[in-house]
Amino acid sequence: MKFNFQCTKVLSLFLGLWACMSIALITMSGGKASAQSYVTSTVPFSPMPYAGTSLTGQFSQPDDGVAGPYQIGFSFCYFGNNYTQFWVGSNGWVSFSPGQPTTYTSAAIPSNGASVPKNCVMGPWQDWWSNLNGNGTISYQSVGSYPNRKLVVSFLQLPMFQCTSLLGTFQIVLNECNNTIEIYIENKPNCTTWAGGTAVLGLHNALGTVAFAVGGTGPNWSRNSTQWVVSPTTPGLTYPNSSQSEGWLFSPIGQCQGIYFGGFKSIDTTSRWPVINPPCYSNLIGLKAKSGALICSSIDTNGTDFRLYNPAGQLMQIRKVSFTCNGNRVDSITVESAIDFLVNGDHHLVIRRGLDNNTLLGDCGSGTQEFDTIIVRLNTCYEYNSPIRIRNVDVQPNNRDIVLTWSTPENFDTTFFKRYILYKNDSLNSSRWYRFASVANLHDTVLTTTVQDPAEGGRDFLAVLEMKYYGQTDFGDSVNNIFLQAGDTTLNNGNRGVGLIRWPAYKGWPNSKYNVFVTAVNDTIGLWVGSTTDTIFSIQKGTKLGRYRLWVQAVNGDSSFMAHSNRIFFDIIDRPVIVFNVITPNGDGVNDNFTIKDIEYFPGTKVAIYDRWNQLVFSSEDYLNDWSPSNLPAGNYYYTVRVIDKNPTYGPLQIIK
Q1: Percent of the chain, pLDDT > 70?
Q2: DSSP string of 188-248?
Q3: By the 8 A CB rule, do 212 and 249 touch?
Q4: Which pLDDT score, from 0 to 100, does residue 3 have?
Q5: Which residues does 287 contact at the CB level (< 8 Å), separation at least 6?
C-alpha cells in the first residue's frame, strides 16, 4: 500500500478597498506641517484680463449678494481639501462652500462668528456693490491648459456702499497644480463713513479657526479688519514693486504640494498599483519621493499617512516612518513595520489621511491620492509547498488502523502555526480529496486513522500545514491603534436608532479621550456627537434618510494634539410604515398589542387611538409596540401614526375579544 505526504500552505488573500471621501478639517498643533499653513509674499502686479462670464444679474441681490455654484475647471486644493466648485460674494470673496453669510462687517479673521464668511479667499472683503447704476462688473473665466490652468475671478470698478463714487478693482486667481492663490489689487479706496471703513485681505478656513491675513507694521500694511488704501497714484506708499498697485501670493505648505512614489524595483503590468519587492525577514519598505515635491516637515514619523495590510487583509502596525532630505525637501521615505515580513504574498501599503487630516496628495492629479496603494510583494519567505514523505508508516494486514507520521519543516517559526489538516483521496493518484482530520498541536505529528474497508485498495494522504497571520501588535504610537469598526450589526442595519462602534485603544499618549464625529457623505464639516474614555460607543443615528460617515478622534490630556481613525459608513434607509389593524388581546402572546412592523426603525413614533365617538383612548409620543387594549371593549376604533420624516398613516382598528 502506498502513502504519500505533502506539506503545503493554505492562504486566504483579501484586501478591502474603499471609496474616497471628504472629511472635516480639524485644527491641530504639533504633528506635521499641513495645508493649513500658507506663506504670504508679494509679487509684481500682473493681473489677467478683466474678462469672462459676467455675473451681473446672477447675485441673490446686487448689494450683499452671493452667486454660484460655478465650476473651477480643475481640482483645487484649499486648506487640505480638494474642490471643483466655487461661490462668489459681491462683497469681494470667493468661497468653496455654499451658504456663506453675505454681511459686510469685515471682522478680523479667524472668526467662527455666524456673520463671517468661511472657507474663502477674501480679496478684499468689505462692503461693495456688485452693480449700481451701471457701475461694477464681476466676472470669471478659466484660462490656460493642463497642467497650468487658472481660475480668474475679476471685480471691476465696484462702487463702495455709501461712497458710490469710490470704485475698486481687484482680482483673485487660483492656480492648478501648485494650488497657489494670487490676489491683484489695482485700486482699493476707503469709505470711512460705513462700517468703520475696514477691510480684510487673506484666507479663512472652513471652521473659522485658521486664517492667513496680510499683516505687518506701518501705514496701510495691516490688512485684517483695518482701514487701508491701494491706489496707483497715492503718494507715500512703500510697496516693493514699481507700481503702487499690489500683487499678493499665498503658497500652501505641506499636503497641497503633493508627493508621489517612484524608484520601484519592479512594475507589475497585471496590477493597477506599483509593486516593490523587499527582502524577506525585513521590516522596512523603501520609497522614493518626487524630487522637490514635499518639505521635510510634512512627513509624520509616527506613520499615520499609511496603513499596512498583510495578504489576509489584516491590519499591521507601523512602528515609525523615517526620511532623508535634500535641501529641506524629502528625498526618500522608509516605512518600518512593527513586525518582520515573514509570509509570501502581496502586502498592501495604502495611502491614508494622517494626523493632520490630510493625505500625501499627488502633484496635479498625477501622484498619490488617498487609498492609492503600493503592493509589497514577498516571494522568498515561508512557502510550505514542497512534498515531504511520511516516515514510519505501518499498516497491519488484519488491522483497520493506519498510523501516519510526519515532521514540520526545519527552522519553522512556531508563532505562525495554526493547525495541521489531513486529507485522503478515494484511490491512488485521484484528484478527489476528502478532509478527515485536523491536529491543533504543533508537536502532535502522529495520527492514527481508521480505514473503513481494508479491501478498498491504496490511496494517497495529504497533510496541510495551515498558518495563522500575525494580527495587531502592541506598538502603541501609531494611529493604526484606533482602527474603527462597527461594533455589531446595529450600525449597518439601516436603522434610525442606536449603532455601536468600537476601536482598539490609542496608546500614543496616556489617558486618551475620544471624540466621535458623524456627517452626511456630501458634507465637509463633521458634527460632534459625543466623547468617551472607553473604546466602545453607542451612536444615536439621526432621522433623515441617506448615507453617513463617522470617525473617532483621539485627544491627549490638554487637547493640544489629536489623531484620527479611519472612516466607516452607514445608511439610514427608507422603510414602509405597516400597521397591523387587528388586535386580539387574550394574553396568548400572539397579536396582543397594537403593532407597527419594524417599530425599532422608527424612533419617536407618535400614536393616537380613538373610539367610534372620536374620544382619545390611547396616545404615545414614542411608541414601542407596548400597548394592549385589554381594558377596552371589543369593537371598531381608529388609529393615527406619525413617523418622523413621513406622511401620517391612519385607518380603522378592530379589537376582537
Answers
A1: 73
A2: B---TTSGGG-EEEEEE-TTSS-EEE---SSTTT--EEE---B-TT-TT---SSSSSSEEE
A3: no
A4: 31
A5: 261, 263, 276, 332, 333, 334, 335, 374
- Tens digits of residue pLDDT in 106-161: 889 999 999 999 999 999 999 998 888 778 899 999 998 766 789 999 999 999 98
Q: Which of 169, 191, 171, 193 is nearest to 181 (CA)?
A: 171
DSSP 283-339: -EEEEEEPTTSSBGGGS-TT-TTEEEE-TTS-EE-EEEEEEEESSSBEEEEEEEESS
Q: What residues have CB less than 8 Å from 289, skipping those under 6 apart?
A: 259, 260, 261, 323, 329, 330, 331, 332, 333
Residue 29, amino acid: S
- Angle, vertex CA 557, rays to CA 556 and CA 560, nearest 5: 60
Confidence of residue 9 (pLDDT cuts 50, 70, 90): very low
The mean pLDDT of the chain is 76
Residue 394: exposure state from Cβ atoms within 10 A (0-12, 13-18, ≥19): exposed
Question: Do the domains spanning 384-467 and 479-572 agree at the CATH topology level?
Answer: yes
The residue among 55, 83, 53, 50 whose CA lies nearest residue 68 is: 55
Selected from 1.20.58, 1.10.443, 1.10.3680, 2.60.40, the CATH number assigned to the domain covering 579-655 reads 2.60.40
CATH number of 479-572: 2.60.40.10
Contact 55, 143 (CB under 8 A): no
Query: Tell me: the pLDDT tens digits for 81-97?
Result: 778 899 999 999 999 99
Q: Which CATH number fits domain 261-378: 2.60.40.1220, 3.30.930.10, 1.10.357.20, 3.30.479.20?
A: 2.60.40.1220
On whether the CB atoms of residues 599 and 641 are closer than 8 A, the answer is no
Alpha-carbon gap, residue 264 to 266, rounded angstroms: 5
> How high is the pLDDT of residue 475?
39
One-letter amino acid for residue 343 of the chain? V
Task: Find the largest Cα–Cα distance for the chain.
Answer: 118
- pLDDT confidence band for 233 (50 / 70 / 90): low
Q: Distance (Å, rounded) from C-alpha 565 to C-alpha 447?
A: 47
Residues 263-316 have pLDDT tens digits of 333 334 445 566 788 887 788 888 776 555 566 766 778 787 888 887 766 677
Domain residue limits, the chain: 38-252, 261-378, 384-467, 479-572, 579-655
What integer pLDDT is reported at residue 607 of this predicted model? 96
